[in-house]
Structure formats: C-alpha cells, structure tokens
Design goal:
The protein has 550 residues and is of the alpha/beta class. It is 54% helix and 7% strand.
C-alpha cells in the first residue's frame, strides 16, 4: 500500500495549534462573500522574471495580469493570423489535462535536446490530412487547415514559445479536465473531441478516455520532471482550474462528472506539491468554488468573471510576487475594481497609478473607462486624447474615445463614427473592442459607412460568427435581405455557428419564400440546441402555416 504524508504525533498537534484556520468554524463566516484560503508560499516570484503558463482558459486569463505586473509571460508572445483562429491566439494552445501537459513538453524537449529545428517528422503525428492536401493540427484548438509549409512554420513558432519553459523562472500549471480524446493510430491525445467531418468519418481511429487519478498524478509529475531535467531551478506553481466542463461524454449528469473531474485533479495537484521540491499549490480553485457564487461566475455559470480573476491575481500578488512597482499594484487594483463595478474606487486607484507613472497608458485607459462608466464623459475624453497622442496605434483607445464622445453632453456622432473607422483599420483592433460600438455604427453611421465598417470586421475576423452578425444587421436595416442571407450562409458554415444565427437565417429565408431550406436550417439549429424554445416555435410555424416570422 502506498502511504501519503506521515507526520509524527507531536508535530501534528503543533501544526493544529499554530493554525488559526484549522477549524471549519473559524472560516465558515467567509462563505457569504469572497473566500481566500491561507497560503504558505515556498518561494517568491520577482517582477521581471519569466513565468511560463500551461493550462486551460483560466490560465489564459491570469497571464494578462501577470504581464501587467511586470512578469514576462511567453504564452502572450504566441500569435496566429485571424484566418486561422477566431479568438486570442494563446487560447489555441490551451491544454486541459495532465497527459496533454506531459505530451507537449516531451515533444518540445526532444527538439530542444536535438537542435531546436522542427522537422516534418516532428509534426506528422500531430497532423491530420484533409482531402485537399491541407493539414489540421490535432494538438491545437480547432484552427483552419493549412498547407504543410504553413503547418511546419507554425509548429516552429509553437516550439519557440514552449522551449522558453526550459529557461523560465517559474512554471505555472493549471489542469482543468480528466475527459480526454486519443488518436489510436499514434497513441497521442488530441486537443478536443474529433468533430470535423473528415475526422468523424474514420470513427475507429478515436477513443474517449476518463483519466484515472494515478495517470493524472504520473503525467503531472512527469511534466514537471521534463522541465526540471533541463531547468533544475525552476519554481512550480500548480492550481486546479475552477472552470467546469461544458459537456461530458461519460454518460453521467454533467454536475456529477465535473465534480469527479475536479476531485481527481485537485488530488493530483496536491500530490505534486508533496512529492516534488519547490512545487506549491495555490488555492484559486477553492476561492472560486467556495466564494458566494454571484461574486464569482459569469451568467453562463462556466467562466469565472474577469473581476474575480483579478481578485485571485491580487491574492497571488500578495503572497508570491516581489518587486512589483507601486504603480503596477495600483493599476491591478484599478482594473479589478472596474470589473467588479466599483467605478468610483477604480477611478481613485487608476489616478494613483497615473500619478506615479504618467506614461502608464494602460492605467489611463482604465481611468478613462471608470470615468465613462460614471458619465464623466468630458474627463474621459481628455484622458483618451492624452493617451492617443502617445499611442495612436491603439484601436481600443479610439473605440473608447468614440463611446465617450457619443455619450457626452453634446454628442458628436459623426466624429465618433470617424474614430471607429480609424480603429477598424488598425492591426490592434479586436472584436471585443468593436462589440461595444456595433450598435452605434448600425444606428448612427450613414448606410454606406456602416456597411464599410462591418464588412471590414468580417475581413478582420473571418472565423468569428459575431463579426458576420453585425454586417447582417446593417444589411437587413437597408432592406437587402438577399445580401444578408448570403452573409448568414457563410456564417452558419463556420464551426462555432450556434442556433440563434441559424434561426435568423431561417427567418430571412422564409420571408423570401425559401421554406424548404428554412425548415432544414431550423432542424440543424435544433440538432445543436434541442431545447431552444424559439427554434421549436419557429419550426412549428414553418411546418404548419408556412409563415416564417414568429
């Protein structure tokens, strides 16, 4: 029998006596608000050090905060063109379970030990070939298939990023799932379920696996050892992602399956801290799952809110980070307060950061947003113009300036639309920036300008359904339903097209008397979301009366 940690009688009594949080009764009162379990750091991280992050989307959220606090975060240096990936580039590199951690680090280590040059032989086990000769990377989020030349180039970039772990000061690992899919032909785990038609056609090639505790522990330890063999002094911080699984293939209720998944991973992460030196467990999972739920979760009850992630990073900062500048601390506080809806307090913290570092443009952006949320539009406008004089390439600042102008005492819609046109021509634009002004463009821009701006967003974000949605709304407003239908057909062909956009297409088709196609589109939507009430009502209407609008 394998025993766990064994502590002598006297030491165990002493640990209990010295621990103010040893009794549940001592902490029970916290459960009505935010819960922050006590942390005993085994090491420190200094601002300026390199922190390599590997894990699920929860890790992706923490990365931005660490970078703003002065750490170098290699995963933020990963990039993909918009025609290959629709979200933040580093999201394509999510790793959800310990075997994926081990597998990608072993792949990187083999090339690192050899010569650092990725060959097609290194890539072939990860590549699934399309009928047209393009290849798809099974170890990434679902990107568009690319040529072999581009595949090899991209894999070299992935290697260049991941090899930084062998020089990093700290490795942060955040597993999130124990449900995994495996390629029987290679024995390798793939990034996510095989949903592409060409992959599903060969069903015998794939198998689903619910990972055991023993496997998760072994793979987590192996992943640490692979790095330590090449970087002996690296500090390791492990935590369990609180983000629940969106769906389960186990046949169990997703709540039961998720609880088991998190239990296994939490145990494996704890074991890593006991079995390896300089490995700490950080209780972000406990904070998220034990705190009062409305303070933690987005409305989808899957993603942790940005505000609470900011609080987790502040907790991490308080216990692990040294050498963080006062302005960076104030900025971190301001951003967290802003996301938590405490706009007046966010303004105070942002002003403190700006006072200490006048050139801190991120702090000025937070200050402007806090002012705007308090309807102090003129002050927000002044801050944004100051920042744009120094960083005219910042699309987000142009977008926020447009919002401030249109909400001001003397709304200047034409000027705001001009700033939006400037923003969408900049390479730094992202869809979340545009999302905040999409309705402004639709309602206040001249028709030709609105169409030009929204077509530009489709060019910039060709894999993102929401970009198409803005263009469709503009075309419908102009009465150009056939053009809108063409755009919607392109949008529903995208992998992440969900029921709502399909239903919009069905309604427009029905209005054009294309009822057979409309019915088929609704049935496809209901196959994706069987309980979609509007979809059921629309299908009943189309099948019984032939009326397309309900």
């Amino acid at each position: 029998m394998i025993r766990g940690r064994v502590i002598p009688f006297a030491e165990a009594r002493a640990l209990k006596a010295r621990n103010p949080n040893a009794r549940w009764a001592a902490v029970a009162a916290e459960f009505g608000g935010d819960v922050w379990p006590a942390v005993q750091p085994g090491f420190r991280i200094t601002a300026g050090e390199t922190v390599f992050t590997i894990g699920s989307c929860f890790a992706r959220n923490i990365e931005l905060h660490l970078a703003d606090l002065g750490c170098r975060v290699p995963m933020l240096e990963f990039f993909l063109p918009p025609d290959e990936w629709s979200g933040g580039a580093n999201g394509a590199m999510n790793k959800f379970h310990p075997p994926a951690f081990r597998q990608c680090l072993e792949w990187t280590a083999r090339i690192y030990d050899r010569d650092g040059v990725v060959t097609w032989e290194d890539c072939a086990p990860l590549a699934f070939e399309w009928p047209d000769g393009r290849v798809f990377d099974m170890d990434m989020g679902v990107t568009a298939p690319v040529s072999r030349t581009r595949f090899l180039e991209r894999r070299q970039h992935i290697y260049d990023i991941f090899s930084m772990v062998f020089r990093a000061d700290c490795l942060m690992m955040t597993p999130g799932l124990i449900e995994a899919w495996r390629d029987c032909a290679t024995g390798l785990y793939i990034h996510e379920p095989p949903t592409q038609k060409v992959m599903v056609a060969d069903r015998s090639r794939w198998e689903f696996e619910i990972l055991s505790y023993q496997q998760c522990e072994a793979d987590l330890l192996t992943a640490i050892d692979v790095v330590r063999e090449r970087n002996p002094q690296v500090k390791v911080l492990v935590t369990t992602s609180p983000v629940p699984m969106a769906t389960t293939f186990s046949g169990q209720d997703v709540r039961t399956a998720n609880t088991y998944s998190k239990s296994v991973l939490r145990a494996a992460c704890g074991a890593a801290g006991m079995l390896r030196a300089r490995v700490d467990y950080f209780p972000s999972y406990e904070s998220a799952t034990l705190s009062f739920p409305v303070r933690v979760w987005e409305t989808d009850r899957i993603h942790v809110s940005s505000a609470f992630i900011g609080k987790i990073v502040t907790h991490l900062l308080d216990h692990y980070l040294d050498g963080v500048q006062d302005a960076a601390r104030d900025f971190q506080s301001a951003r967290t307060l802003l996301m938590d809806g405490a706009y007046d307090q966010a303004e105070v913290a942002a002003r403190a950061a700006v006072a200490k570092r006048p050139e801190h443009l991120e702090a000025r952006a937070i200050l402007a947003e806090a002012l705007l949320r308090q309807s102090k539009c003129a002050e927000a406008e002044a801050e944004l113009k100051f920042a744009l004089e120094r960083a005219p390439e910042r699309a987000d600042l142009w977008i926020t300036l447009a919002r401030a102008i249109v909400r001001g005492e003397h709304a200047r819609a034409d000027e705001a639309i001009g700033h939006i046109q400037t923003a969408v021509m900049l390479p730094s634009i992202n869809l979340s920036d545009f999302r905040s002004v999409g309705e402004l463009v639709r309602q206040r821009a001249p028709p030709e300008v609105a169409e030009r701006i929204t077509r530009r967003t489709v060019e910039l974000f060709p894999l993102h359904v929401e970009a198409y949605q803005h263009l469709v709304n503009v075309l419908v407003d102009q009465g150009r339903r056939e053009d809108a239908i063409d755009v919607l057909r392109r949008a529903t062909a995208l992998r992440r097209a969900q029921a709502d956009i399909r239903l919009q297409l069905a309604r427009l088709l029905a209005e054009q008397d294309e009822l057979a196609e409309a019915i088929q589109v609704v049935r496809t939507a209901l196959a994706l979301e069987p309980n979609h009430a509007a979809g059921k009502a629309l299908l009943a209407s189309l099948e019984t009366t032939g009326v397309g609008v309900v």
